[in-house]
Design the sequence.
């Protein structure tokens, strides 16, 4: 799987979970659980990701977060958690 494909799959997965979280209860524990599941699922799916891709993940997630979601929304918290979790989960 190419590096670009890995980045796209991760970003798409986090965005999907952000949409689901935004439509559900706005409870931080549920949001955190959602992001953990997304990151774990992604890691299982693609395996080990090269360290140099971490900044690409963060940059894309931050760009999508700023472009599509209002500050203080549940979706924004999903993206913030995903960005914070990257060094620990991938």
Sequence:
């Amino acid at each position: 799987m190419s590096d670009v494909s890995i980045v796209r799959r991760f970003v798409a997965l986090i965005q999907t979970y952000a949409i689901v979280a935004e439509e559900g209860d706005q409870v931080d524990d549920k949001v955190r659980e959602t992001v953990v599941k997304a990151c774990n699922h992604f890691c299982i799916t693609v395996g080990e990701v090269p360290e140099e891709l971490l900044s690409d993940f963060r940059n894309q997630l931050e760009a999508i977060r700023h472009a599509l979601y209002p500050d203080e929304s549940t979706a924004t918290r999903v993206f913030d958690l995903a960005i914070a979790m990257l060094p620990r989960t991938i």
Remarks:
- The radius of gyration is 12 Å.
